[in-house]
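Bumping my old thread because nobody answered last time. Still need a sequence for this structure:
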């Protein structure tokens, strides 16, 4: 596409004044993984990227928020840099945890609650549990007594013969020194 065509398309396109932003999300993203990170800002109502900021500095995010004063709700992760930037750039905006972090925090809380009541949960489910020799190490619980015996009976009742496929047949291989010659 030529430059003239591109300019003609841009000039013919309708320009609509941007609507005031109400609900946005802020998170970091990698320009170069492990080395350089920036900030991504998304319109959560329309599901589109608003801007990519060159760094994760509170001043940069705060300046962007000051240029967009209508923001009412900002979803963010647990980074204190973003919390500071929001307090400075959009002090009236409500800060909320984003969906991923809500689910992550819920999972952590659920694991902690179940861990605290592990004995009661095991007893309610009829699961036998042995005491660990060392703190933090647990043996695998036995769900059904006699399950090993049942598995062994099934294995002995129906022995399976594995067919030898073409790739398993011994062939002459000069490197391995195999004396068997292929047919």
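Sorry it took so long. Here it is:
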């Amino acid at each position: 596409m030529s430059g003239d065509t591109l300019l003609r398309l841009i000039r013919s396109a309708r320009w609509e004044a941007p609507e005031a932003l109400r609900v946005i999300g802020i998170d970091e993203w990698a320009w170069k993984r492990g080395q350089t990170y920036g900030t991504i800002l998304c319109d959560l109502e329309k599901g589109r990227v608003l801007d990519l900021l060159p760094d994760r500095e509170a001043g940069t995010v705060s300046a962007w928020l000051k240029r967009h004063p209508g923001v009412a709700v900002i979803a963010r992760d647990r980074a204190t840099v973003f919390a500071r930037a929001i307090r400075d750039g959009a002090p009236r905006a409500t800060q909320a945890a984003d969906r991923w972090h809500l689910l992550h925090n819920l999972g952590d809380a659920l694991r902690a609650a179940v861990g605290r009541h592990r004995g009661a949960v095991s007893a309610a489910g009829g699961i036998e549990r042995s005491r660990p020799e060392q703190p933090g190490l647990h043996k695998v619980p036995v769900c059904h007594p006699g399950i090993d015996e049942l598995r062994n009976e099934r294995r002995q009742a129906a022995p399976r013969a594995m067919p030898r496929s073409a790739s398993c047949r011994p062939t002459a291989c000069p490197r391995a020194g195999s004396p068997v010659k292929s047919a």
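Helices lie at 3-12, 58-67, 80-89, 99-116, 118-124, 147-157. Let me know if any region looks off to you.
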